[in-house]
Specification:
This protein is α/β, with parallel strands linked by helices and 230 residues long. The chain has helices spanning 5-8, 14-26, 38-41, 65-71, 86-97, 121-131, 206-218, and strands at residues 34-35, 45-49, 52-60, 79-80, 102-109, 135-140, 147-150, 153-156, 173-182, 185-197, 200-203.
């Protein structure tokens, strides 16, 4: 929902959201984490890749108190899939588990500029993995957080910025998390580092890349995640 809703009532809020959803639907453009109602907002995007049935679910754990009620999708109102509606999010994962080989949950979560997970991220990650998620990743903090294994699942608490106007480290540290997974088995994951220059990520190579990967691995220290499955 557009922030202009604060200043102009629902002129740009619900009306703007419904218009955007309608345009996306007409263009056959997949949208997750938001919808005409809660059922649609929590509905996964599905694809079959090399015979593997993939389901991707999205939700937000970042909602200002004064906006949470108006912006959260309900049974009869358009809005966001809220991770604070944890039972609905977990139910969506369990439902997807019954007809999926791999489940990915993407979350808008974390505390801005904080490079360790906050007290509500870790319990949610554990609950999602217990419900059947194989990969749990997200972003919001504008800095990278650690990633690694939670049991057999892969969790990344903060991917950082991809394209962004900030020119101050560590906000300029960027990159891509590359995951190879077969069914529920994470075969491999690697961090491909980049540095944001003039607002866009530029891949790093050689010594710079090696240093960036070491830095990324060091972020795992405060996450209770492991570099390998236990």
């Amino acid at each position: 929902l557009a922030t202009e809703a604060d200043n102009h009532g629902e002129e740009f809020g619900l009306a703007g959201l419904k218009q955007s959803l309608s345009i996306a639907h007409q263009a056959h453009y997949p949208v997750i984490g938001i919808g005409y109602n809660a059922a649609q907002a929590f509905n996964p995007y599905r694809a079959v890749v090399h015979g593997q049935r993939i389901a991707i679910i999205a939700a937000t754990q970042v909602l200002d108190d004064n906006l949470a009620s108006a912006w959260t999708a309900t049974r009869h109102r358009a809005g966001l899939a809220s991770a604070y509606q944890e039972s609905e999010l977990l139910d969506a994962v369990r439902a997807a588990r019954r007809a999926s080989d791999t489940i990915v949950v993407y979350l808008h979560w974390g505390s801005e500029t904080q490079q360790c997970p906050n007290p509500i991220q870790e319990p949610l990650a554990r609950a999602l993995v217990k419900a059947g998620a194989d990969i749990v990743v997200g972003a919001h903090a504008h800095v990278q957080l650690g990633g690694g294994y939670l049991g057999a699942a892969l969790v990344d608490y903060g991917l950082g910025n991809l394209a962004f106007y900030d020119t101050t480290p560590p906000e300029t540290s960027s990159g891509s998390l590359i995951v190879t997974i077969t069914g529920r088995h994470v075969d491999n994951y690697t961090w491909r580092p980049a540095l944001i220059e003039n607002g866009l990520p530029q891949p790093q190579h050689g010594t710079d890349a090696a240093t960036a990967v070491r830095r990324w691995n060091a972020l795992r220290a405060c996450t209770n995640l492991t570099p390998r499955t236990r």
